[in-house]
Amino acid sequence: MIRLTKSQVLLIHDQLIAETGGSSGLRDEGMLDSALSAPFQTFGGEDVYPSLQQKAARLCFGLVKSHPFVGGFCHATCHHASHGFLRGTKNKETSGSHRCGHLLLLTA
What we know:
By secondary structure, the protein is mainly α. It has helices at about 5-20, 30-35, 50-65, 75-90, 95-105, and strands spanning about 40-45, 45. A two-stranded antiparallel sheet has the order 1-2.
């Protein structure tokens, strides 16, 4: 199981800003840490989000709802981070970008 690091998500965000314009930076580091760790929570020794799809959805929800970045772009960063997470699992069933787009629409 892969986990996106804070530096990877910050790089995704910075690349989006460089390509499209806007303000770069982190508004709340604690909220980013929370969004990145939430998909891997356990309770009673069991994963709270056991499937890859549930983990990707929780990652996306955390990045969008916590607004950890200066100047927005949380939705775009969510899309790219969730897509990268699912692609990193090398599971063709879950790696389609249409699935990431669907996750984004559900959390918006």
